[in-house]
Amino acid sequence: MYTNLVKILLIFIVIFSFGNKAFALSVSDLENQIQSRNEDIRNLQSELNKLRTELSDLNSKSKTLGNAVAELDTARKKLLTEIRITEDNISKANSSIELLQIEIGEKETSINKAKKAISEGIKKMHEIDSQNFTYTLLSGKTFGETLVQIDEIIEFQKSLREKSLQLKTEQENLSKTIDKQEEVKNELISFKSEIEGQKEVVEKNKDEKDTLLKQTKNQEAEYQKIIAEKERLRAQFEAELTEYESRLSFILDPKSIPSAKNGVLAWPLDNILITQGFGLTADSTKLYSHRQGAWKGKHTGVDFRANNDPVKAMASGTVVGSGNTDLVCPRASFGGWILIKYDNGLASIYSHMSTVTAKNNQKVKAGDIVGYSGNTGYSTGPHLDVKVVPASAVTIETWPSKGCAGKNYTTPIVAGGTYFDPLSYLPKTTDAMWK
Fold first, then answer.
1. Are residues 26 and 166 in the same domain?
2. Cα distance between residue 371 and residue 368, in whole Å
């Protein structure tokens, strides 16, 4: 019986020191792949930062055809670099999933063998327990030998309890590993969606450059004519929009929106540089002089410098709609836009977007990518215009354009022109965030 106890204990030692050497090389290869991808991402990120600086410099220069073309070329390089980073992230996520699958397989094998060994151990303990103390004494063993055997049985029971606890820990670790695998899978899905959006923006960037060169015939004078026409159409649009909104009455219920407090909303971009604030600004008096009523000469949103960057939801909510006014009256107004109504009672309108990737009625949360910034609509340079309004005040309406006669705009309409300063709800700014 002593020999049997030793054998059973040895089984436990082998099981709980189990390590699958067959996977060692594969695990090492995957870990090396992940490390290599991380190194690539660091190098590409450094390159990306340089391109962002170049774009910032170009954006601040005078609006000439040469600078516009250079800006588009640099933006394309930036996008291609971002695509390479996303591809590395996809590769890294795939390797991580494989690594986790190996880990899950090892844990499951260990758990199954442990369960079997514990089952056999319990069966053996049942056999031992069925032999009562009197039977043991009558078996011819000395009293001392019997006490040693009893001590061995007690130790075995103790070991069985310990191994059962270890099995429980293994099962808990397996559950955590499976949860981690699901997290990485969700990241992979997000990366795949992101790269599709990035590739779409690259194509739009190319189309924008081709269209610009075709329209101007590479002549600076023609480019300046285009800018002047854009300004005329923008002024017309601004006047029409504010007149339309001012005719719609709206009474705000203060209880329907959160109090103005920094941090209620998250930043819509990863890199923050504010180029124009809300209300009366250095540029707004001239730009918005054509507006009527309370918003005459005022900016109804906040502008952020952004060049084909991922644009994100600022809170949990629902995408209500999106569109592109350039299809109706090119370069006159919003360009690519998206309206998101948040669960907290606020809504955001993003405009001048290169592309919108979120779908109508899609549920989003803070940080989810909904599209990419651009230079569509009336825009003197790539940027993102962010407006914040009461969700109950904004609807999507179709209305006639006077600037482009015979055409109809479809845009968000804010009843009563009830616009809020986005910076009252966004995180606190620093001096470095302002141009």
1. yes
2. 9
